[in-house]
Design goal:
The complex is a heterodimer of chains A (about 400) and B (about 425).
Chain A (H helix, E strand, L loop, with lengths): L1 H10 L6 H5 L8 H12 L2 H15 L16 H23 L14 H20 L3 H19 L2 H21 L6 H16 L3 H15 L1 H4 L13 H13 L2 H25 L27 H9 L7 H30 L6 H4 L2 H4 E2 L4 E2 L1 E5 L2 E9 L3 E4 L2 H6 L1
Antiparallel strand pairs in A: 1-2, 3-4, 4-5
Helix pairs in contact in A: 3-5, 3-6, 5-6, 5-7, 6-7, 6-8, 7-8, 7-9, 8-10, 8-15, 9-15, 10-13, 13-14
Chain B lengths: L3 H12 L6 H5 L8 H12 L3 H13 L1 H5 L22 H23 L19 H20 L3 H17 L5 H21 L5 H16 L4 H14 L1 H6 L7 H12 L3 H27 L23 H13 L1 H34 L12 H4 L9 E5 L2 E6 L8 E2 L18
Antiparallel strand pairs in B: 1-2, 2-3
Helix pairs in contact in B: 3-6, 3-7, 4-6, 6-7, 6-8, 7-8, 7-9, 8-9, 8-10, 9-16, 10-16, 11-14, 14-15
Classes of the chains: A mainly alpha (about 400), B mainly alpha (about 425).
Chain lengths: ~400, ~425
């Protein structure tokens, strides 16, 4: 994390719109530009004031002034409707961005991910409004658009991967909460959307590749005694040691440290990128790999020790890094199964007695276990989940269901 | 009180077997102003044979064998194929085909609902046929099927409209005689069962519409008094026949003990018996009308009183009158009828409360903590128990029911949020 977030923190104060900061020279052909324009809409004082006021309703009522047309007595639906009406243009931009190829590049300033998260919240609220109005198609489409958006964000660097994974899970939970309202055509659209997402190259591969390029490209900037780079190394003694050691290094030694760091970054990513070429069920080492994070110890006696210190807490891939990708792909499969089960229910007036009645063998297969997904009937409802692995534990589609376990 | 029902029901079924239209047989020349005529037209449009074929196929596809079988030659019990249906079709596809072929009949119901509705037959007797009752019940099933198809396509507004029209239809046919009130209850039950199936799919505007419609239905009194007066008149007109042959009415033991005596009564005694019986019946019908036309809170839903004993060795005229009165309008029948009526009223109130709870959920993104959060006290109160309807949040959704009627257990419509892992039972409202 040293190489990544220290630079982010330094550069995040740059002025201008998010789009100007991240993609200063837009082409019009990159959907990420629309995403950034959308993020600019929620990165405004108006949106933040609205969200602050809304949060204050439960934490500190009366401390923030209500947006025009709203009051403390406004219902959740009224607030969501205001939000969707006032900032809905942002969601149209997301949908437009989804129609194009997307790429953020490796610009070091990473200011868009928090607004992206707000965009997902906005989209979930807008879909809620659509569902409340009985516009099931619009509600489902909104959430499916967010899934595509989140998946595209997941492809961008380690930060995007982390943010996008969270956005994906949040969107899947929201979609699952409206399962009762899915029509037959909703089910078809969900199946199609999930099929497309799963058929595309896994976003984690793109994320690892872009993060590797990003980290390698920033080694020179990070290992430079003349640049004061704020660090997030937790151990102050270690930070002091790094400063002392860096000042004492010759140019040649500094280059050696850079080379060691580059090699370690390359090796770490190569190992996981190789693993990600395998079938999904083999992405995780269920015995856990040895940690790839370097084990830097004071004193930093050797150049290798110093290199390890630089890499300490960095976003190098490890088993835990892969878990969100595995879990979300598994949740996508569960979402597809839910849509197939719901469609089966519409078509046959009952839930399937076995998963195989509603889903093909392929759709019903849990790649993590090599067995069919777990399907349990509970009275007038049912539960689909994965038994997962020793590393992941059970994987459930919705956060709420997981909480219930 | 209910004794004529099976006879009339049989007559109604027999009436179906003739080719002449219901409208022609029952109305003759339509006025265009009576919604009952539209109901009859709808019955004629639906016909008597088509829907049962679809219904049979839907049931067949739901069966274990039907679900797995696409080969018509391999199953000797395969029902005949209705128009537009092939063996490999899903339940939904069959429902769509049924809707395409007979669903239009249900739309005529809503035309009738716009008009004043009354039974076009002015004079009723024990021989009056009610051949429309079975087609009316069938129309309700056609309407529920139509709504199912519409729900599956996301056309919830239309589906809700159809189910509410079905409930209005049930109310429209209520006031003729007892059997029509029972068919009315059955039709409402069919509509509510379909509502129950789709409660989780209703939008805010859907539930607001339901709330308003239920309030109107609850506020508009059912013509119970008029219906009971007609029923009394019908019974009164049949007394002479019953005295000539009481075996159709009496139990085996009673017939053994009193049958010959009744048939052998002299003119004066027979007149005396008729008079006493008429008085007893009139008093009982008036008592029932008085109880059921007051506020629901005064309905004797938990009355456990029984008929006066009628010793088998007492062949006095007064005892004979009591025996016959008990058979024609006994306490047990009255209790059953009142309970059936009360249950139907409770279920309608429950539908309204579901609408309020779901509206609250849409508006606040949480379920109400208690019923009073979404409904005023009057609506939230079970009129038969005087206490609030039972409401609790459960398994990510909620449970709502009444225990206001002794002996009927929990009366409920079940909200099923399939995204929540709730545990609940079958498909019909309790």
């Amino acid at each position: 994390m040293t190489l990544t977030f220290s630079i982010v923190a330094l550069l995040a104060v740059q002025a201008g719109t998010l789009q100007q900061q991240v993609i200063p020279d837009p082409t019009g052909a990159n959907g990420y530009e629309e995403y950034l324009q959308a993020a600019d809409i929620v990165d405004t004082r108006q949106f933040k004031d609205f969200k602050r006021w809304e949060a204050s309703l439960t934490s500190k009522p009366g401390t923030e002034s209500a947006p025009s047309g709203l009051s403390e007595k406004s219902s959740a639906l009224t607030r969501k409707t205001y939000e969707a009406n006032t900032f809905g243009k942002a969601l149209s931009l997301v949908v437009e961005g989804n129609t194009k190829p997307t790429s953020r590049g490796t610009k070091a300033v990473m200011v868009e991910f928090s607004p992206f998260n707000d965009l997902v919240k906005l989209g979930i609220d807008a879909s809620y409004v659509a569902y409340a109005k009985g516009d099931w198609k619009a509600g489902t489409n909104e959430l499916l658009a967010l899934l595509v958006f989140a998946n595209n964000v997941t492809r961008e660097l380690a930060m995007g991967y982390v943010a996008g994974s969270s956005m994906t899970q949040r969107t899947l939970t929201a979609l699952d909460e409206h399962r009762s309202q899915w029509t037959v055509s909703d089910c078809d659209r969900i199946v199609k959307a999930v099929d497309e997402l799963l058929a595309a190259p896994p976003s984690i591969i793109a994320a690892f590749k872009s993060e590797r390029s990003f980290q390698l490209g920033n080694v020179d900037a990070a290992i430079d005694p003349d640049k004061k780079i704020p660090r997030e190394v937790l151990d102050e003694k270690l930070e002091a040691q790094i400063v002392i050691r860096m000042k004492s290094l010759t140019v040649a030694d500094r280059d050696k440290v850079k080379t060691i760091v580059r090699n370690k970054i390359g090796v770490a990513f190569a190992a996981y990128l190789s693993r990600l070429q395998k079938p999904e069920g083999d992405w995780l080492d269920n015995k856990r790999l040895a940690p790839t994070d370097p084990n830097a110890k004071i004193p930093l006696a050797t150049l290798e020790d110093l290199a390890d210190a630089f890499l300490l807490d960095d976003l190098l891939p490890d088993n835990d890094t892969v878990i969100p990708a595995v879990a979300n792909r598994n949740r996508l499969r569960q979402m597809r199964l839910n849509a197939l089960i719901q469609k089966f229910r519409w078509q046959n007036g009952r839930f399937p007695t076995q998963l195989s009645e509603a889903a093909s063998k392929e759709a019903g297969l849990d790649p993590l276990t090599g067995e069919p997904f777990q399907y349990e009937r509970h009275g007038a409802s049912y539960r689909v989940y994965s038994k997962g692995t020793a590393v992941t534990g059970e994987i459930d589609l919705s956060a709420r269901s997981a909480h219930k376990k | 009180m209910i004794v004529l029902t099976p006879l009339i029901a049989l007559a109604a079924m027999q009436g179906l077997q003739t080719e002449q239209s219901l409208l022609t047989r029952i109305v003759g020349v339509p006025t265009g102003k009576n919604g009952y005529e539209d109901y009859l037209k709808a019955g004629d449009m639906a016909g008597s044979h088509l829907w049962p074929m679809y219904e049979q196929w839907i049931a067949y596809k739901m069966s274990t064998f039907g679900a797995a079988n696409n080969d018509p030659d391999s199953d000797p019990t395969l029902p005949p194929l209705p128009p537009g249906v092939t063996p490999e079709m899903s339940d939904l596809a069959i429902r769509r085909a049924a809707n395409d072929h007979v669903g239009g009949a249900f739309e005529v119901i809503s035309i009738g609902n716009q008009k004043q509705v009354y039974d076009p037959r002015q004079d009723l007797s024990a021989s009056t046929l009610f051949p429309e009752m079975a087609p009316f019940k069938m129309l309700a099933k056609i309407g529920a099927n139509k709504a199912y198809v519409e729900f599956s396509e996301g056309r919830t507004t239309q589906a809700v409209n159809d189910l509410l029209e079905g409930i209005k239809f049930s109310k429209g046919i209520f006031g003729s005689i007892l059997i029509s009130s029972l068919v009315s209850i059955a039709i409402q039950s069919i509509m509510l069962a379909e509502f129950q199936r789709h409660l989780g799919q209703l939008s805010l505007s859907d539930v607001q519409h339901i709330d308003k419609a239920c309030q109107q239905l609850i506020d508009t009194p059912y013509p119970i008094k008029e219906m009971l007066a007609r029923e009394y008149s019908l019974t009164y007109n049949s007394i002479d026949d019953l005295l000539k042959d009481p075996s159709e009415l009496l139990s085996e033991d009673e017939n053994k003990a009193f049958g010959a005596t009744i048939k052998g009564l002299g003119g004066v005694e027979q007149q005396q018996l008729k008079s006493m019986l008429t008085q007893a019946l009139k008093s009982r019908y008036e008592d029932a009308a008085s109880k059921l036309t007051g506020p629901e809170s005064t309905w004797p839903v938990n009355d456990a009183s029984t008929d006066a004993q009628t010793p088998l060795d007492d062949k006095s005229v007064s005892n004979l009158a009591l025996v016959l009165a008990n058979q024609l309008q006994g306490k047990n029948m009255q209790h059953q009828y009142i309970k059936a009526m009360a249950k139907a009223r409770i279920q309608l109130r429950l539908l309204q409360l579901h609408a309020k709870v779901i509206a609250y959920h849409w508006q606040n993104a949480i379920w109400p903590a208690k019923l009073e959060d979404c409904a005023d006290l009057k609506v939230a109160t079970d009129p038969f128990s005087g206490a609030l309807f039972h409401y609790e949040q459960k398994d990510g959704a909620y449970k709502l029911y009444s225990t206001g009627i002794t002996g009927l257990g929990q009366i409920e419509l079940k909200y099923r949020n399939i995204a929540a892992q709730e545990n609940s039972g079958g498909d019909h409202p309790n």
